[in-house]
Each structure stands twice: as structure tokens, then as C-alpha cells.
Amino acid sequence: MGREETIVSDAIRAYLTTKGCIVYRMQSGRFRGAGGWITMNPEGTPDLVCGFPIGGLCVMIGVEIKTKIGKESEEQKEFGRKLEGIGGFYAVLNSEEQAKRFIAYVTRETMSRLQKFNVAQKESFQ
């Protein structure tokens, strides 16, 4: 992660924390250590993996930080598809303002899902 991405990442992490998220900064790929190659998380793992408390639940969020000219890898796109496929949320962000819009979307979407679930539960008991 370059300096510009680090600055953006720090701002986004700080914002997510104020919203109650548990935020983990992830490292992926491999690097050479004193004893040889060290493998971190799989390629495609987003920069931030978060638990976001909403409606009494913990929603999983993956955030990939990119500069305005940065490109998402195929592995990152695949991670996003898999996470969204199981009900989580994924975004590529390049500013704190984008993070605010993303969290607003996650909140609306999660509350909508909870509302649909509650209606389905009520109908199943009648």
C-alpha cells in the first residue's frame, strides 16, 4: 500500500470505527522474511475486513482501498462477489466521503433485509 492509500485507509478506518465497526487491516500475498517466504492472507483479501453492528446483528464488510487511478485485481473482484453472495457487503473506496455513503447504503440495505425477514417470519407463523 502506497503513501496515498495509507492516508485514505487511515481516514476510512477512523470513520468506520466511529460507526461501531470492528476493523481489521489485512495483509495479503507473500513477502520475504528472515527465514524465507511468508504467506499472508490469500490474494484478493480486501485491505479492511469489518464487523458492522446493525439491528442487533454483525454484518461483514470488505473494503478495498484504491487511489483514484488504482485498479482492482481479478482476485479482489472474486472476493467481493463471494462476500456479497453470502449476504455481506464489499466496496472499493478511495475517500472517507465514499465510506460514509457506503455505510449509509449498508445500513439501509441491512434494515430492509431485516424488515423482509420479519415479515416472512410473521407470515410463517400464521
Short description:
The chain is 45% helix and 26% strand. The chain is α+β, with helices and mostly antiparallel strands and 126 residues long.
Please provide a written account of the structure.
With 126 residues, the chain is α+β, with helices and mostly antiparallel strands. It has a single domain (3-124), classed as Trna Endonuclease, Chain: A, domain 1. It is built from three helices and six strands, in the order αβββββαβα. The strands form two sheets. The protein has a four-stranded mixed beta sheet, sandwiched between helices. A two-stranded antiparallel sheet has the order 2-3. The mean pLDDT is 91.
Topology at a glance:
Elements: H1 3-18, E1 22-25, E2 30-33, E3 36-39, E4 48-54, E5 57-65, H2 74-85, E6 89-93, H3 96-124
Parallel strand pairs: 5-6
Antiparallel strand pairs: 1-4, 2-3, 4-5
Helix pairs in contact: 1-3
The helix content, as a percent range, equals 40-55%
The proportion of strand residues reads 25-35%
- The number of strands is 6
CATH fold naming: Trna Endonuclease, Chain: A, domain 1
Main sheet specs = 4 strands, mixed
**CATH architecture verdict:** 3-Layer(aba) Sandwich
Q: Helical element count?
A: 3
Nearest-angstrom radius of gyration? Answer: 17 Å
The rounded distance between the terminal residues' Cα atoms is 54 Å
Q: Tell me, briefly, the overall form.
A: elongated
Query: What structural category characterises the helix and strand content?
Result: alpha+beta
Q: Order of strands across the widest beta sheet?
A: 1-4-5-6
| Mean of pLDDT | 91
CATH class: Alpha Beta
